[in-house]
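Researcher: Let's do a round of design. I'm pasting the structure tokens now; please hold your answer until I've finished.
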């Protein structure tokens, strides 16, 4: 009986961790589209990294600077949506890995929205005192080069 209860507690804890990580990843799009640099940066560890392929960030401050950048603020001014599919999350104690796909939709005047980018994100997380935080995130476009597929393979092999 005691083993069953302990097993159930572990399973519930894993489900709660997966839900919390999915919520963290899901909050990125709305936060970055709202232009809130501090809230976006708070998703990362202080020294957490983010490599988009075009831009490399190595701290929470760098992530905030990206949100404040003219390039990003220009996206917001035109109208954009960072949309993320559900992540596949693997939790291992106080560390986790997630992989998901995303699209960046950008408003094109009266023509509605166009897909500006479609990509894959491999996200490494750690449990901190306040919950989960991103320690490393790599994004690559689904451009046929194979780099995005490598991220999928790495994320799903855990």
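Researcher: That's everything. Go ahead.
Model: Designed sequence:
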């Amino acid at each position: 009986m005691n083993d069953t209860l302990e097993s159930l507690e572990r399973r519930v804890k894993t489900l709660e961790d997966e839900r919390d990580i999915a919520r963290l990843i899901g909050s990125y799009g709305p936060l970055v589209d709202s232009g809130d640099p501090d809230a976006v940066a708070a998703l990362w560890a202080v020294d957490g990294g983010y490599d988009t392929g075009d831009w490399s960030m190595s701290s929470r401050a760098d992530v905030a600077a990206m949100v404040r950048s003219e390039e990003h603020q220009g996206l917001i001014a035109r109208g954009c949506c960072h949309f993320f599919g559900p992540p596949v999350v693997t939790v291992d104690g106080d560390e986790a890995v997630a992989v998901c796909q995303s699209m960046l939709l950008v408003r094109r005047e009266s023509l509605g929205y166009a897909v500006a980018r479609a990509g894959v994100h491999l996200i490494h997380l750690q449990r901190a005192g306040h919950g989960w935080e991103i320690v490393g995130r790599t994004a690559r476009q689904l451009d046929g080069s194979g780099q995005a597929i490598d991220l999928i393979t790495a994320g799903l092999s855990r």
